[in-house]
């Protein structure tokens, strides 16, 4: 089955991202496809490459990155909503440059795009599964 | 592109958390995809479409007026839980008079809001292809 996933909460404060990751991992291991994971609301914070949990805890951001979810063109399909990301200080190099801000924090396993990618995922997948509070 | 039935389920009030405004942002983007869109309001979500919201005192953007634009985007199925209204001492007359112009009926102005019981809402939900919960 072709799944799309929406993650609506940030890491550590809520379990939603962990649950979504466990679901995605299990789905892939059982031969299903995760065509896209869309991060919305505080979920955009799951993409910060500055995340540094204590060593005895899980690394939520690296967990997502380890799934290596990409499309046929090799682009990441861990997609962060641009509007939600910018208002929360989550920037890739392009957005940082565009807004004259030094530095950027988006993990390279993710990419920033628009809300249309969420709707498209709902249309193209067999199931869109939402993880939130 | 295939047409699917999308429902946006709103369960939280306008302010206090970001869910309501960011849900509305999704709905407005979704309008461009020409899908069959409906909105549902239940639990504290019914407060999102209460008439007379005023945000000057809290320094938040008053996005409630945006709901009036939905009709122009062909989004005219707004279901509101009867039980959720009653639990909060509200009735349909407390809600914004949201309307759309029916192109199949000489552009007559018709109400977009429909108060339904939770059982009716359950049946409508089960008909959906995609349900996004906020």
Molecular structure report:
The complex is a heterodimer of chains A (133) and B (134). By secondary structure, chain A is α/β, with parallel strands linked by helices. Chain A has one domain: DsrEFH-like (Hypothetical Protein Ychn, Chain: A, 3-Layer(aba) Sandwich), CATH 3.40.1260. Chain A contains five helices and five strands, in the order βαβαβααβαβ. Chain A has helices spanning 16-29, 60-66, 82-87, 93-98, 116-124; strands spanning 2-7, 33-39, 78-81, 111-113, 127-131. Chain A has a five-stranded parallel beta sheet, sandwiched between helices. Chain A is globular. With 134 residues, chain B is an alpha/beta fold. Chain B has a single domain (5-133), classed as DsrEFH-like (Hypothetical Protein Ychn, Chain: A), CATH 3.40.1260. In chain B, β1, α1 and β2 form a beta-alpha-beta unit. The mean pLDDT of chain B is 95. Classes of the chains: A alpha/beta (133), B alpha/beta (134). At the A-B interface, α5 of A face α1 and β7 of B.
**Structural class of the helices, strands and pairings of chain A?**
alpha/beta
Tell me which CATH architecture of chain A applies here. Answer: 3-Layer(aba) Sandwich
CATH topology (fold) name of chain A: Hypothetical Protein Ychn, Chain: A
Query: Helices and strands of chain B, in N-to-C order?
Result: EHEEHEEEHE
Widest sheet: strand ordering of chain A: 4-3-2-1-5
SSE-based structural type of chain B: alpha/beta
Alpha-carbon distance between the two ends of chain A: 25 Å
Broad CATH class of chain B: Alpha Beta
Which chains have the largest interface? Answer: A-B, 18 and 20 residues
The percent range for helix content of chain B is 10-25%
Number of helices of chain A: 5
- Tell me what the CATH architecture of chain B is: 3-Layer(aba) Sandwich
Report mean pLDDT of chain A, rounded to a whole number.
Answer: 97
Largest sheet composition of chain B: 5 strands, parallel
Query: Could you give the count of β-strands of chain B?
Result: 7
Number of strands of chain A: 5
Largest sheet features of chain A = 5 strands, parallel
What is the number of independent domains of chain B?
1
Mean pLDDT of chain B: 95
Strand content of chain A: 15-25%
Strand order of the largest sheet of chain B: 6-3-2-1-7
């Amino acid at each position: 089955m072709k799944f799309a996933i929406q993650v609506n909460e940030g890491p550590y404060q809520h379990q939603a991202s962990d649950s979504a990751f466990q679901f995605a991992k299990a789905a892939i291991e059982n031969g299903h496809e995760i065509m896209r994971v869309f991060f919305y609301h505080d979920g955009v914070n799951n993409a910060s490459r500055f995340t540094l949990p204590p060593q005895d805890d899980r690394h939520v951001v690296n967990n997502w990155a380890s799934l290596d979810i990409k499309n046929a063109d090799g682009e990441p399909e861990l997609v962060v909503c641009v509007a939600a990301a910018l208002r929360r200080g989550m920037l890739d190099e392009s957005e940082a440059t565009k807004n004259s801000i030094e530095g950027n924090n988006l993990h390279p396993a993710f990419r920033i795009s628009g809300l249309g990618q969420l709707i498209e995922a709902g249309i193209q997948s067999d199931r869109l599964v939402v993880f939130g509070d | 592109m295939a047409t699917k039935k999308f429902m946006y389920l709103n369960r939280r009030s306008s302010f206090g958390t970001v869910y309501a405004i960011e849900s509305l942002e999704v709905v407005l983007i979704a309008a461009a995809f020409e899908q069959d869109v409906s909105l549902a309001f239940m639990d504290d979500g019914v407060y999102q479409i209460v008439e007379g919201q005023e945000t000057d005192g809290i320094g938040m953007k008053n996005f409630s007026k945006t709901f009036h634009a939905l009709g122009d985007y062909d989004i005219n199925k707004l279901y509101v839980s009867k039980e959720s209204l009653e639990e909060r001492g509200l009735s349909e007359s407390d809600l914004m008079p949201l309307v759309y112009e029916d192109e199949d009926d000489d552009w007559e102005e018709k109400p977009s809001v429909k108060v339904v019981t939770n059982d009716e809402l359950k049946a409508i939900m089960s008909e959906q292809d995609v349900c996004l919960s906020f």
